[in-house]
């Protein structure tokens, strides 16, 4: 069986839909990166500082490398077809755009995912230099790590774009939900950088989590533009949260035993990254579905309120934390409503933009 992964507009001989293989490889790479991240965070929490060469880091690096190589392969094959004046199928990653003075022809989705992978390489070299200069990483949010997280996020955005192009195909529909869910889960770590901002009475991390959760949820829903779109993204996130809730502590303990390192005395078994994901996200997804006919800012504001209002309860349930001061709680919920409304409108806009990546029906080839 022959599988056509190029963007040439020739019919595929095999049964695998055109574009599925490279899109699946890019998505698989982002999932591997997410596995590495949840593992690395748990390692910092349960064991302590680490060096550059660890197994969780290997997952992070391998995920970006896989996505980057797949993106590069599609760009090179598309460029070769364009040089031979062969028709380029826009269903594979979107319409091709010229890069470096049209030296390369790159489908826009794979261009974005490839740029993210290339930036990861740059920040990875910086991270290696950082480890060589300072030794162990005591915290997860070191400057090179922030760059690494942002570069992986760009690759994940590219994965969403690749599947959004094929949203009318069954594999494209499922891919959008999984890619958006992966991006949402990953972004919960990126918002930790907001803790450095002077938020005053507002919990900036909770407000930021509400903003990104609502925005990505709306984006996925409007890309799919069908009943159950938001719920599909929410279910994917809930599945990843449940899976990593078990995996993160287990993998950390097994790897620590294998390397002869002890766990910290105060390890509580609560996973780091999964607990950053709002448990109320499914409730927000249901609200988005029920309020589908209203302006996006209404459902977005409600989603922001739900997440910020229930975030302290989630920490009380998992960590036994105290309820925050009333002034701080109310201020954070109000900020969540405002940011949620903005996120709803932005998510709708981004979703509509991603829908425009899909080729017109008359331009598609079976």
TrEMBL record:
The keyword Transmembrane helix applies. This is Uncharacterized protein. Keywords: Membrane, Transmembrane, Transmembrane helix. It comes from the Bacteria. The lineage of its organism: Bacteria, Bacillati, Actinomycetota, Actinomycetes, Pseudonocardiales. It comes from Lentzea albida. The chain crosses the membrane at residues 20-39, 59-82, 103-126, 146-166, 173-195, 207-224, 231-252, 272-291, 298-317, 329-347. The keyword Membrane applies.
């Amino acid at each position: 069986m022959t599988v056509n992964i190029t963007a040439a507009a020739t019919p595929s001989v095999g049964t695998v839909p055109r574009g599925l293989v490279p899109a699946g490889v890019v998505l698989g790479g982002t999932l591997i990166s997410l596995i590495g991240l949840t593992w690395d965070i748990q390692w910092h929490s349960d064991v302590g500082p680490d060096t550059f060469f660890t197994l969780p880091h290997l997952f992070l690096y391998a995920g970006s490398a896989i996505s980057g190589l797949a993106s590069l392969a599609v760009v090179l094959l598309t460029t070769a077809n364009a040089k031979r004046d062969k028709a380029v199928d826009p269903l594979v990653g979107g319409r091709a755009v010229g890069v470096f003075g049209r030296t390369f022809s790159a489908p826009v989705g794979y261009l974005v995912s490839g740029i993210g992978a290339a930036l990861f390489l740059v920040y990875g070299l910086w991270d290696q230099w950082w480890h060589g200069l300072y030794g162990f990483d005591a915290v997860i949010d070191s400057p090179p790590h922030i760059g690494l997280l942002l570069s992986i996020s760009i690759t994940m955005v590219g994965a969403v774009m690749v599947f959004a192009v094929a949203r009318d195909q069954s594999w494209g529909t499922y891919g959008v939900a999984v890619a958006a869910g992966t991006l949402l889960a990953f972004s919960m770590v990126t918002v930790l950088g907001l803790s450095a901002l002077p938020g005053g009475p507002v919990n900036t991390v909770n407000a930021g989590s509400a903003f990104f959760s609502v925005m990505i949820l709306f984006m996925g829903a409007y890309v799919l533009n069908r009943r159950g779109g938001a719920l599909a993204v929410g279910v994917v996130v809930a599945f990843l949260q449940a899976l990593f809730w078990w995996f993160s502590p287990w993998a950390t303990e097994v790897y620590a035993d294998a390397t002869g390192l002890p766990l910290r005395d105060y390890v509580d078994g609560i996973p780091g990254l999964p607990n950053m994901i709002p448990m109320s996200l499914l409730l927000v997804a249901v609200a988005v579905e029920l309020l589908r006919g209203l302006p996006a800012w209404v459902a977005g504001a409600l989603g922001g309120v739900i997440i910020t209002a229930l975030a302290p309860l989630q920490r009380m349930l998992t960590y036994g934390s105290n309820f925050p001061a009333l002034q701080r709680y109310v201020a954070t919920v109000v900020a969540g409503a405002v940011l949620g409304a903005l996120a709803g409108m932005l998510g709708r806009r981004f979703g509509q933009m991603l829908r425009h990546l899909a080729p017109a029906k008359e331009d598609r080839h079976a």
